[in-house]
Protein 1
Amino acid sequence: MARRLPLAYYQSDDVTGIARDLLGKILVTRFEGQLTAGRIVEAEAYMGPVDRASHAWNNRRTARTEVMFSAGGVAYIYLCYGIHHMMNVVTGPAGQPHAVLIRALEPLEGLDIMGQRRNLAVDHPRLTVGPGALARAMGLHVQWSGTSLTRRQSPLWIEEASSLSPESICAGPRIGVDYAGEAASWPWRFFIRDSAWVSARRKCT
DNA sequence: CACGGGATCGTCT
DNA sequence: GACGATCCCGTGT
């Protein structure tokens, strides 16, 4: 098993840099002894205070978004459309509510478990594609919002992996944030150009 | 492949 | 009481 990303990794100010750098890293969960893992192939940065697409826009604090204001290195998981659980990585120092939404994985381990959770065949091409889909496949649920990604006993974490070449990474506008005005066009969605496991528009911009 | 609609509920107005 | 950082299935081309 590879080394876990250290706490300092998450506490950088540079949320777009982290979103880009998380590509290729391995997201792992072990809930009730069931190990599942996938390679991050698509992620979006949400820059808290200045980003109208962010739940923490203008430093808005609510019970739900409070974990976004924690120091980086914890999960922010929320329920979307009453159905889908969205997995985010909180980044930055305490008080700075930046986060990275994990949008797609390439499944690596525990595919049988993922298939059961998704009620799909193990070799389904969309087993872990899309934020709601991957959260379900990995067993992620709002009950785990606020959980550390770095504590030794944590059931979810991210493992180190070699960096990708800049040419293999694409950037473009984020998905589903049309309500966010000017922020909707900011190119803060990052994905691996050649991955078959990317969720939406594949064109590089 | 593109589009449209239904599912479903916590959160904030 | 309205509305999502979505998904899946159906229809039509």
Note: The CA atoms of residues 48 and 56 of chain A lie 5 Å apart.
Protein 2
Amino acid sequence: MARRNSNIADDSVARTALLDAAERLLVEEGYAAVTSRRVSAEAGVNNGLVYYYFGTMDELFIQLFRRRSEGSLERLRQVLDDPQPLWALWEFTHEATNNAITMEFIALANHRKAIKDEIATYSRAHRSLQLERLTATLRTYGVDSERWPATAILVLMAGTARFLLMEEGFDVQTGHAEAVAVIEREISALEGNRRR
Amino acid sequence: MARRNSNIADDSVARTALLDAAERLLVEEGYAAVTSRRVSAEAGVNNGLVYYYFGTMDELFIQLFRRRSEGSLERLRQVLDDPQPLWALWEFTHEATNNAITMEFIALANHRKAIKDEIATYSRAHRSLQLERLTATLRTYGVDSERWPATAILVLMAGTARFLLMEEGFDVQTGHAEAVAVIEREISALEGNRRR
DNA sequence: GTCTATAGCTGGATAGAC
DNA sequence: GTCTATCCAGCTATAGAC
């Protein structure tokens, strides 16, 4: 019987099935539903394998988060390569799929310290990457970086997008159309209407 | 032995102690820590009383949320009476205290349908009250309501404030100072510097 | 209204056979 | 690597004495 921290291939079938199942449960029923028994049942895999592959449920959550955040940073890179990067970033951030699971992780973080650290690291990397790529772009658009620093613009966009998604989760939409219109108008003023 | 839904005074000592204890646990350890056993222990009250007063844990959460939201709407009313209502609203929304518990309730809502409905109702009431009071104010400030509808401004402010608080919870602060500076500059342009 | 006791369930984690 | 069995903890909720 092998134990955690031994050399377990990251691409084993059972391991992947477990992570996939955990992700599904997390999105559909919230993190409270992500128990070792339910994850293994959902994955069609024996319950003992959860502990064989991850050791603890905490570790499973962490590895799930890492798998997602690597994918997500990779997608962000592609998004920022768009000829209209502000538009692309806005669409990306405003995308519902990412958000449900992100909110679950944030909630999880409130009582799982290890997850908290993972999220912090990821958030900083995410913001850095955006800054790195967009600071120069905004300058070429002629944005006054004193009045409108790139970081401020990014925070306003990200905050608004996430807030809209959060409220939509509760079927609260008051003022959303108007807020979206304002933001998209400002983006258009810099990058023109969205092409493609 | 009385049962739930009988006539139980809302101001009984034990009931209040239980709600207070639940609130404390919710803020400090997250909703997973809010179990009937821990709440009663924290309140210094017998465990059976949780069920005597609330019937189920779901009901306890709901009544806690209601107690808070009534208080919160009342405070919002006062805030909007400030001679500089935009400033006051910004400060209110940007206040850390409210936020920790709000995030917990949002997380809770993901797997407690009844809580979800409570939050939706409250959010709509909150937004309506803001709109009702601020639409006219913004007009007197000379804000062009075509370009900058009151609802859009409220959503942008609320979204940004909550996002900043959320990230601060993870010790992520990149760009926060810049975003705050931009928002406060815009508020100042309408209402002047913050007095008081 | 308050208390004790307990039924009944679900969960994390481990041991050890195969 | 996979599987079964199992220990132990913690939870909701109820029954019923006081």
Note: The first helix of chain A runs from residue 13 to 29.
